[in-house]
Amino acid sequence: MIKHMNTAKFTEPDSQEAYSPPQSPPQLGSSSLNANEFAYRSVSKSAIASLTFAILGVMVAFLGQVFVLMPLLGLIFGLIAVSSFRRFPEELTGKTVGKIGLILSLVILVTSVAFHSYIYATEVPPGHQRIAFSDLRPNPKTPNIPFSEKSMELDGKKVFLKGYVRPPGGKQRKLKEFILVGDFGDCCFGGNPKITDVVAISIIGDDTVDYGFALRRIAGTFHLNKHTKRTKEAEVPQVFYEIHTQEVR
User: Fold this and answer.
1) In this structure, is residue 179 part of a structural domain?
2) pLDDT, position 9
């Protein structure tokens, strides 16, 4: 008699039900992530430069005509920034900064030019002739004349001249006499101007001047010293040109 063994039927587990492999994390390029969250956008250097020059223009553009260059540079960099944003809208950021710099530079440029134009048109007192330091330079074609030919025509006449106070060797406040130069570098950075690039100023009235970086406006009588005249300044001991004035603005 053969005994029948009750064998259990072995069934392999369904792989789909019994085991589920771990899902790999989505890649950066998958549609489940927004690629813009990982995009790098650089700040426009032109936009930053535009705003920087605009701010500098606010501070100095009205101090002198040369400083109008600040808002002009701000305007140029602002236009460059706008052009860059149009060409690379997805790569650059800082559009608002660029617009502010552009608009502010334009406003400062227009108002400062109008301001200096008005000053130029009204600053010369009646009966005075506007002159510049270029009028006082000698003619290289006449080396036997050490001063300018125009200075001989100006001798004894009322003139108007703008320039900067050269650093005096002694006191720097309440000056009655000082040396006027036409170049900002000679005024404030220790330049060594030629004798025909300086004018000795003597204040006849009660007015005085303090040394500083500000542009000065001189209205008075011009004098030519053909054999030079000594001054109190060690670095500028002699001058050809003088102006006697009642006040300095």
Assistant:
1) yes
2) 47
